[in-house]
């Protein structure tokens, strides 16, 4: 059965920080941020945007009434969940108006959560060919002011509708996965910020990529020549370049150059948004599809997903004919271009805002709530309050 991605879209908050200005404020050479890690702008989530509202906004940007009727599974991948019990998927289900008979579940494994959702969706559709599944990757990467991870923050969500006979990308059932219990990045329940061993995490990412790529080749008999382009989980965009260099170390220079050319198209959106954890790989895929040249039907795209802790997976898909007709390039470019730049002082103040931790009620008001469709407007009697315009 032909199963894959029928629709894809993303949403990011309407405020950002310029990375050159952040570097100057931190007495760092700007090239360390713009070239060294490969970031240009960094989306910041105001208090009225959390993982639920970001996901709902992303979903509403692509769903039509037929989708809402046929979607019977909502899978919410995130490491920025807002409740230990209730899934973010339940809120998104209500805010988007999806049919009441749908199942709604939250998935967590660092940046791998949305990929787990895709694998579950494929199995569900194989058993229920008329079904559609909404898969969400939504996160807020937040490390704090003047921390080592500060330039690799970000915020946003990617929404995908999976179905049989998709119009964008058919997914192959040929993946290779790996799980190891390591401590390269983690966030205890008591901490607002993650702990990370940056050097170890980078190496773990590349080690996992090598292991699953070797396993994938053994399973399928495919080589790099079978792929038109590769997309990667990119916590910062320079990581994708490191991945290609690792994969092509023993390949012809022409192979590396070809993949590097597509890599530039695949990081366009990520460079403007920053790290969105579970959505990062799929924002890169979307960037390739919208910002890259139109590829021939049947072109194979490789996808590498990595979630610290750690789980990695390599899988692939083939492009459908006329896939460009079903994308929203202009809308996504407008979303990014119409954002408001924060001064460094505004950014620092916004980053340190948080909801009360003592159970107190709060009402949220902000001029920036003029954009988007769904907002968190406060907390009342310990229950988050969302509004859909």
TrEMBL record:
InterPro entries attached to this UniProt entry: HMG_CoA_synt_C_dom, HMG_CoA_synth_N, HMG_CoA_synthase_prok, Thiolase-like
Hydroxymethylglutaryl-coenzyme A synthase N-terminal domain boundaries: 2-163
SUPFAM superfamilies: Thiolase-like (SSF53901)
Transmembrane parts of this sequence: none
UniProt domain Hydroxymethylglutaryl-coenzyme A synthase C-terminal: residue ranges: 176-256, 263-387
Pfam families according to UniProt: HMG_CoA_synt_C, HMG_CoA_synt_N
Protein keywords: Transferase
Family matches, as NCBIfam families: HMG-CoA-S_prok
Stated family: Belongs to the thiolase-like superfamily. HMG-CoA synthase family.
Protein name: Hydroxymethylglutaryl-CoA synthase
């Amino acid at each position: 059965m032909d199963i894959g991605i029928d629709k894809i879209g993303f949403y990011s908050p309407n405020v950002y920080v310029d990375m050159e200005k952040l570097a100057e404020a931190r007495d760092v050479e700007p090239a360390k941020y713009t070239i060294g890690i490969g970031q240009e702008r960094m989306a910041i989530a105001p208090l009225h945007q959390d993982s639920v509202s970001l996901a709902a906004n992303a979903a509403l940007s692509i769903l039509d009434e037929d989708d809402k009727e046929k979607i019977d599974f909502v899978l919410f991948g995130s490491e920025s969940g807002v409740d230990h019990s209730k899934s973010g998927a339940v809120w998104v289900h209500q805010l988007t108006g999806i049919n009441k008979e749908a199942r709604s579940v939250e998935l967590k494994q660092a940046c791998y959560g949305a990929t787990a959702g895709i694998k579950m969706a494929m199995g569900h559709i194989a058993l229920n060919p008329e079904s559609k599944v909404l898969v969400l990757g939504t996160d807020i990467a937040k490390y704090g002011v003047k921390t080592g991870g500060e330039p690799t923050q970000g915020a946003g969500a990617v929404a995908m509708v999976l179905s049989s006979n998709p119009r964008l990308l058919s997914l192959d059932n040929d993946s290779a996965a790996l799980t190891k219990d390591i401590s390269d990045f983690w966030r205890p329940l008591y901490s607002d910020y993650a702990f990370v061993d940056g050097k170890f995490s980078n190496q773990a990412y590349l080690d996992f990529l090598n292991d699953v790529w070797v396993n994938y080749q053994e399973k399928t008999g495919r080589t790099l020549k079978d792929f038109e382009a590769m997309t990667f989980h990119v916590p910062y965009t320079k990581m994708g370049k490191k991945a290609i260099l690792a994969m092509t170390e023993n390949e012809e220079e022409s192979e590396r150059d070809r993949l590097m050319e597509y890599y530039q198209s695949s990081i366009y959106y990520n460079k403007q948004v920053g790290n969105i954890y579970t959505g990062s790989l799929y924002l890169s895929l979307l960037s390739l599809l919208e910002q890259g040249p139109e590829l021939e039907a049947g072109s194979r795209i490789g996808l590498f997903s990595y979630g610290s802790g750690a789980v990695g997976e390599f899988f692939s898909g083939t492009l459908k004919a006329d896939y460009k007709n079903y994308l929203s390039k202009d809308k996504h470019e407008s979303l990014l271009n119409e954002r408001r730049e924060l001064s460094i002082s505004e950014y620092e103040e916004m980053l340190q805002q948080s909801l009360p931790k003592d159970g107190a009620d709060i009402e949220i008001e902000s001029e920036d709530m003029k954009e988007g469709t769904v907002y968190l407007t406060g907390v009342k009697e310990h229950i988050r309050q969302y509004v859909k315009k």
